[in-house]
Design brief:
Number of strands: 9
Order of helices and strands: EEHEHHEEHEEHHHEHEHHHH
CATH topology: 2-enoyl-CoA Hydratase, Chain A, domain 1
Helix content: 40-55%
CATH architecture: Alpha-Beta Complex
Strand content: 5-15%
Structural class: alpha/beta
Length: 271
């Protein structure tokens, strides 16, 4: 059964993740999202894309529950995301999460994300593919990589400070704290915070509003605002991947991932 569904709502393409309850990344789901985005991006009758998810979470990132991956598994050729140990996106095969994520960022059609539940780690990174984000107070947002003992990915070290500023980005990265949707909107991580049962409908309203504008002008504006952003995202992702490979070889990463799987507080030793 496809893990990504596509529907049309007038001039809006609706892309829905279907890996409930938490819509974890991996197993090609980012590639499916990229393919769906590209199909809609090539359709002149699609003028905006709504990204949403079924289940309790929007996207809870990678699934580390019940797993204690060894560094050798990560550095021996391919990691749990499908990324190679070389540390460059150019070396990543078509099945890699990092390669597929860059395809998402390359889309010329405006994207609106309906974030009704948790957006954690790479799941938060996925929300930043969108041009606009609608959320609710119940949603939880976190870049929890430091609590797992390794480095952020998904170009988050570029996209997060770009959006919320370096001050808020430092706090979120260093502490791995969770914030609710109201705080996410207050710091600029989300654009609107509405009641939970209105998240998708409000996001669709925004998408329809964008779709009513001149499509060639909107695409040109998005391209102008983006500038050389895709090149910057690629460079950020190259660096992130190299740092993930390095740090996943540490005892701290093994402890952080084990603690997450066992639902306990990690005890880091700086080695």
């Amino acid at each position: 059964m496809p893990e990504v569904g596509i529907q049309r709502h007038g001039l809006v393409g609706v892309v829905e993740m279907r890996r409930p309850p938490h819509n974890h990344l991996g197993d090609g789901v980012v590639g499916e999202l990229a393919a769906a985005f590209e199909d809609l991006d090539a359709d002149p009758d699609c003028r905006a894309i709504l990204l949403c998810a079924e289940g309790r979470s929007f996207c809870a990132g990678a699934d580390f529950s019940g797993r204690r991956p060894e560094a050798a598994n990560f550095a021996g050729g391919r990691d749990d995301y499908g990324a190679p140990a070389h540390g460059r996106v150019d070396d990543v095969g078509a099945g890699s999460l990092y390669h597929e994520a860059l395809r998402l960022f390359a889309i010329g059609t405006p994207v609106i994300a309906a974030v009704h539940g948790a957006a954690i780690g790479g799941g938060l990174g996925l929300t930043l593919v969108a041009d606009l984000r609608v959320t609710c107070r119940e949603a939880r947002w976190s870049v929890n990589f430091s609590r797992l003992g390794f480095h952020p990915g998904f170009a988050l070290t570029y996209t997060l400070p770009e959006l919320v500023g370096i001050r808020h980005a430092r706090r979120l990265f260093y502490t791995g704290c969770r914030i609710d949707g109201a705080e996410a909107a207050a710091i600029g991580l989300a654009d609107e915070c509405v009641p939970q049962d209105e998240v998708r409908s409000r996001a669709l309203e925004l998408a329809e509003e964008i779709a009513s504008s001149a499509p060639l002008a909107v695409r040109a504006i998005k391209a102008t605002l983006g500038g050389d952003r895709l090149d910057r995202l690629r460079r950020a992702t190259d660096h992130e991947l190299a740092e993930q490979v390095r740090l996943l070889g540490t005892d701290d990463a093994r402890e952080g991932i084990a603690a997450y799987a066992e639902r306990r507080t990690p005890k880091f030793a700086a080695r």
